[in-house]
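Tokens as discussed.
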């Protein structure tokens, strides 16, 4: 595909033009960036400021861009690490059989072949596409909303509380979208022979446990995802701010897009490590409850123990979530700069208009 054709792939409502020659300028800009795009890098080159295209902050186009970027960042990354997620879930459910990462891969390859390593990719792709759209889109909305409620001075003074409140509010909505897909995914991944994937797994799941069964794990999912997301967004914002303050010699607005996106990835990776530790006990609960019909939280605690809930599968999850979160912030901010928006963090919360 020619780079001049990329314009047709981006919805027109994401842009507002400032010149009648903006289409021509946009194509020229993309041609200028072709050399950068040829590199083996997931970061997307951003159009220059003089391209004539720029999304205005906190407009419907801004929230639409945030939603699309969030959907892309989550669905692509979670689907890519499906084999790791599959091993993790099986280590949590059957530790006697899946004793380590390496042996787990060997068992799955022997029993299910290469295709077995991507079992459950469809509910993962669709579920995290919906979750990412809600997570990032509503986070940007709630961050602005709570900043406006607090006022300019308090928004800066209590910015971490605003990050925490905004991310928690967004995740409550995002998990409602994710939960049915997560339930089917866990069942498909941990019970060989249950179903091939989403198309036959979803109706079989509903037939066995009813439609309400798809939301049996919503409370532990909230318990896993809300602390995870609060840590993911608040720590990311704080880490990036500190990187620009202490590690980057140049102010953010003077840094190149490549530098800013590198900071986004590094901040996301560090934030992901913290996320994995905080949310891991609930992650074990979600896997246990979705795998065992009629199981309760008490059953999980009795069988796994408090130490088991906190540590079983944790090293793999730290590696997986660190990489995942770093890549998500990299992709999300890459999409933002591609449509003419600044990268996330490194600046105070939005002021009241």
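Sequence:
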């Amino acid at each position: 595909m020619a780079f001049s054709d990329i314009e047709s792939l981006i919805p027109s409502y994401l842009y507002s033009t400032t010149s009648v020659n903006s289409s021509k300028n946009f194509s020229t800009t993309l041609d200028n960036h072709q050399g950068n795009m040829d590199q083996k890098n997931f970061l997307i080159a951003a159009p220059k400021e003089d391209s004539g295209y720029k999304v205005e902050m906190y407009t419907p186009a801004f929230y639409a861009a945030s939603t699309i970027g969030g959907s892309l960042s989550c669905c692509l990354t979670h689907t890519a690490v499906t084999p790791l997620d599959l091993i993790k879930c099986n280590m949590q459910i059957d530790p006697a059989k899946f004793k380590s990462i390496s042996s787990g891969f060997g068992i799955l390859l022997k029993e299910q072949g290469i295709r077995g390593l991507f079992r459950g990719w469809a509910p993962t792709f669709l579920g995290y596409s919906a979750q990412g759209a809600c997570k990032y889109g509503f986070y940007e909305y709630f961050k602005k909303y709570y900043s406006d409620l607090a006022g300019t001075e308090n928004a800066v003074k209590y910015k971490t509380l605003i990050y925490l409140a905004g991310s928690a509010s967004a995740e409550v909505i995002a998990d409602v979208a994710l939960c049915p897909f997560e339930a089917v995914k866990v069942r498909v991944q941990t019970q060989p022979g249950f179903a091939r994937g989403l198309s036959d797994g979803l109706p079989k799941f509903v037939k066995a446990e009813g439609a309400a069964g798809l939301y049996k794990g919503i409370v532990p999912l909230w318990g896993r995802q809300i602390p995870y997301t609060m840590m993911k967004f608040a720590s990311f914002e704080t880490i990036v701010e500190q990187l620009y303050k202490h590690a980057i010699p140049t102010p953010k607005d003077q840094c190149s897009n490549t530098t800013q996106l590198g900071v986004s990835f590094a901040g996301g990776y560090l934030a992901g490590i913290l996320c994995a530790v905080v949310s891991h006990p609930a992650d074990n609960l979600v896997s246990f409850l979705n795998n065992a019909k009629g199981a309760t939280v008490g059953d999980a605690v009795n069988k796994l123990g408090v130490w088991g809930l906190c540590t079983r599968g944790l090293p793999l999850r730290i590696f997986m979530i660190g990489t995942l979160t770093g890549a998500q912030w990299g992709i999300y901010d890459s999409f933002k700069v591609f449509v003419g928006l600044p990268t996330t963090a490194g600046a105070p919360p939005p002021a009241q208009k």
